[in-house]
Every structure is written in structure tokens, then in C-alpha cells.
């Protein structure tokens, strides 16, 4: 296999991977992301949860040490070995409780945080995506970010996944103000995976994205998140519509200043004909929209 091109920092191609197994037990492999030359830049392994007792951490329904995940960790190591793909752990999401447990007093924080730190180290993640879909204080998220940076160093990626409306002073699931967070810790945050779906936004046109940009956000830090299939939530935009929106933004703001595209999620991502079965084709198509497939750099 020829060497894969090293992607520039922007634009990014981000894919979330939560459904590792289908209901019939079929495993969804990540290796086509490499073998099919998709130009993916970041893979988010979802979703890690901190449960009631400190140290009780699950990846979806099972501990990450469960043998069912052995093949997943082998594959994430292979992705990382390519040196072109970073693998992050997604923490939180729709299931409540994780960030409440990290928002307590010092002793409570230490009890829940330290086992999380150990999991991130054990599985050699390149970063963490904080998907805060419950109330958390600004001081709480600042403490978490500061501790992650202290424990993992300057190369460790820290991202957040706000609903799109939270970036233009609209409804917000997280509790804290993202503009305030960016002012206070923006230098520690690599980018934001903005959710333009499930009623929080949509990408059929540029209007909401431009509203966010007009609020003063660095366009290179806003990754445009969409669902990869209508089955993953409302707000799905087909290939042609997504291409039109993103290419318009690229023309207005210069390609290197677009943060990238994010997809939720990998296993059932549709190809350009609207068919399931080869989810890597969605990733490859997104890279083409961003101009990465032709080897251009941002």
C-alpha cells in the first residue's frame, strides 16, 4: 500500500463510531477507512460513560476491557499507526450523569476522573471529545479541561460537541456558555464538533453557519456536524445539498478556514446513491467535498 497523505490541520474529516456491532452480531470494521483511502482525519469512539460508582466506566453497555472490544482496540491501533488518523474517546452524550459526576467537590471529582484518565492512557487515545448534554457548571468544565491538559500534555486533543444553537446564543444542552469557555480556555480546545441536526440546526443552506461565524467564532474551529443517514436523526442532508453548502462556505471564507465536516455515525452512513453497506464511501465523499481527495492542503 502506498503511503497515505498527511492531512493538514484543517479542514478535518471527523466520523463518530458508536455502533460497533449490529443487532445480529456483525462487527463493523474501521479498517476500510484506511484501505479505501478515505482521507478521514479523526475517529471518535463513542460513547464512554461514568456510572454511579467511581471506576465503573462503560463503552456503551460494557466495560472497555470486555473481550468484544478486543478487535476494536486492535483496529484503532492500526489507524493510529498510519500517522494520518487520530483516535479520540467520546465522553458523555445523550445518557445523563457523566458530567454531573465530574462537577462535584474535589474528592468526588478525583474519584471519578482518575479512572477515566487511566482508561484514556490504557487505550492510547489521542484525545477526548466532551459531549456535554446535561447541565455542567463553567467552573466544572474548566477544571476538567485543565486536568486533562496537565495529565496528557500539549499534543492531546480536547474537543467539545455543542448543539449548533449553543454557538449563537440559542438553546444549549450543556449549561455553561460556550463563548465564555472559548474566551477562557480556547487555546486548549482544538475545535468544536457542532451538531447541526436533531432539531438543533441543519446544513441544507449556509444561514445558520454564517450566523455562528458572525458571533465571532474562528471558522477553522467549527466542524460542521451532520447525520450520515436519515435513520440517525432529523436534519439529514444528502450529498448534493451538503456539497452545495460547504462549497459555498469554502468560496466565501477560503477552504483552509473551514473547520471540516463531522458525521454521526459510521456504521450506517449512506453512499452517494443513498444506499447502506459501505459506510466508508460517505467519509470519502465528504473528503472530496472538502478538497482533500485530490491531495490539496488547507
Radius of gyration: 18 Å
* Helix proportion: 25-40%
Main beta sheet: 8 strands, parallel, barrel
Shape: globular
Q: What pattern of helices and strands is seen along the backbone?
A: EHEEHEHHEHEHEHEHEH
First and last CA, distance: 25 Å
Q: How many strands in all?
A: 9
Read across the widest sheet, the strand sequence of neighbours is: 1-2-4-5-6-7-8-9
Put the structure in a nutshell.
The protein is of the alpha/beta class and 298 residues long. Helix content is 31%, strand content 17%. The chain is built from 9 helices and 9 strands.
Your description of this structure?
It is a single chain. With 298 residues, the chain is an alpha/beta fold. It is 31% helix and 17% strand. The protein contains nine helices and nine strands. It has helices at residues 32-35, 70-81, 98-101, 106-122, 138-152, 178-185, 207-214, 239-253, 280-289, and strands at residues 12-17, 42-50, 57-59, 86-92, 127-131, 157-160, 191-195, 222-227, 260-264. An eight-stranded parallel barrel has the order 1-2-4-5-6-7-8-9, surrounded by four helices. Helix 8 (239-253) links the parallel strand 8 (222-227) and strand 9. Helix 5 packs parallel to helix 6. Mean pLDDT is 94; it is low at 1-8.
Provide the fold topology:
Layout: E1 12-17, H1 32-35, E2 42-50, E3 57-59, H2 70-81, E4 86-92, H3 98-101, H4 106-122, E5 127-131, H5 138-152, E6 157-160, H6 178-185, E7 191-195, H7 207-214, E8 222-227, H8 239-253, E9 260-264, H9 280-289
Parallel strand pairs: 1-2, 1-9, 2-4, 4-5, 5-6, 6-7, 7-8, 8-9
Antiparallel strand pairs: 2-3
Helix pairs in contact: 5-6
Amino acid at each position: 500500500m502506498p503511503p497515505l497523505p498527511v492531512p493538514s490541520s484543517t479542514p478535518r474529516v471527523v466520523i463518530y463510531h458508536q455502533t460497533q456491532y449490529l443487532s445480529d452480531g456483525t462487527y463493523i470494521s474501521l479498517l476500510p477507512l484506511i484501505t479505501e483511502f478515505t482521507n478521514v482525519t479523526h475517529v471518535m469512539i463513542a460513547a464512554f460513560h461514568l456510572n454511579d460508582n467511581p471506576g465503573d466506566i462503560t463503552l456503551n453497555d460494557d466495560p472497555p476491557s470486555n473481550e468484544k472490544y478486543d478487535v476494536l482496540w486492535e483496529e484503532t491501533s492500526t489507524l493510529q499507526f498510519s500517522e494520518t488518523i487520530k483516535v479520540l474517546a467520546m465522553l458523555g452524550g445523550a445518557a445523563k450523569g457523566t458530567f454531573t459526576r465530574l462537577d462535584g467537590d474535589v474528592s468526588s471529582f478525583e474519584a471519578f476522573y482518575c479512572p477515566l484518565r487511566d482508561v484514556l492512557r490504557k487505550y492510547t487515545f489521542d484525545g477526548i471529545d466532551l459531549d456535554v448534554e446535561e447541565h455542567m457548571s463553567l467552573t466544572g468544565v474548566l477544571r476538567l479541561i485543565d486536568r486533562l491538559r496537565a495529565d496528557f500534555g500539549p499534543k492531546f486533543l480536547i474537543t467539545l460537541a455543542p448543539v449548533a444553537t449553543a454557538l449563537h446564543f440559542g438553546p444549549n444542552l450543556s449549561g455553561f456558555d460556550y463563548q465564555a469557555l472559548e474566551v477562557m480556555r480556547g487555546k486548549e480546545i482544538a475545535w468544536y464538533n457542532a451538531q447541526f441536526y436533531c432539531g438543533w440546526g441543519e446544513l441544507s443552506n449556509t444561514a445558520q453557519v454564517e450566523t455562528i461565524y458572525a458571533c465571532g467564532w474562528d471558522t477553522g474551529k467549527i466542524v460542521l456536524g451532520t447525520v450520515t443517514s436519515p435513520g440517525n436523526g432529523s436534519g439529514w442532508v444528502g450529498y448534493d445539498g451538503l456539497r452545495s453548502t460547504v462549497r459555498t462556505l469554502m468560496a466565501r471564507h477560503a477552504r483552509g478556514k473551514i473547520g471540516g465536516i463531522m458525521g454521526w455515525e459510521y456504521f450506517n452512513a449512506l453512499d452517494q446513491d443513498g444506499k447502506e453497506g459501505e459506510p466508508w464511501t460517505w467519509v470519502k465523499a465528504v473528503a472530496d467535498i472538502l478538497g482533500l481527495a485530490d491531495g490539496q492542503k488547507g
